[in-house]
Amino acid sequence: MQKKPLQKAIFLDRDGTLIHDRPGHYLSEPDKLRLYRNTPAALKMLADKGFRLFVVSNQSGVGRGYYTLATANAINDHLEKLLSRHGVKIAEISICPHAPSTPCECRKPAPAMGLRLMAKHGIDPSRSYMVGDKLSDMEFGRNIGVRTVFVKTGHGRSQSEKHGEKLAPSIKANDILRAAQRICDEIQD
Fold this sequence. Notes:
- The protein is α/β, with parallel strands linked by helices and 189 residues long.
- The protein has 7 helices and 6 strands.
- It has a single domain, classed as Rossmann fold.
């Protein structure tokens, strides 16, 4: 029996990468979610190149008591619904609901969310990428063994000023669409 080949994937941070993120504010209502203008086109481009799409997001607002896990799930459901209107399917959304002060194995940059998704969905890390706007996203990508893509949206500019060379992404891009174009330029299959 022939073994099914591993798939390539894009792991995506949510706030500041796919959707508008207001620093210091926690998104706690689904109808307040706003996609970046280029998000659907970027994700469609990646999906058309055969990438499975995963969202991996720290949602400390749950652990801090700002909103419930049910609310976080409703926001993610709304995100999937908005993207599906543009023909984009997210394979799975995984969140860490813990506050930064709570010890856990799932909060980025810890690798648990990514490793679980890779094992469950048969993902080849050597053909996969992590896209995000924070140092924790870049560290998470390195921790799960994928190439990293840093976007300047969301917290990107302030993170770049604060962390500089520590970010060390494989690719830098102004936004999710430029990131998708750069990834597509790199891939061989």
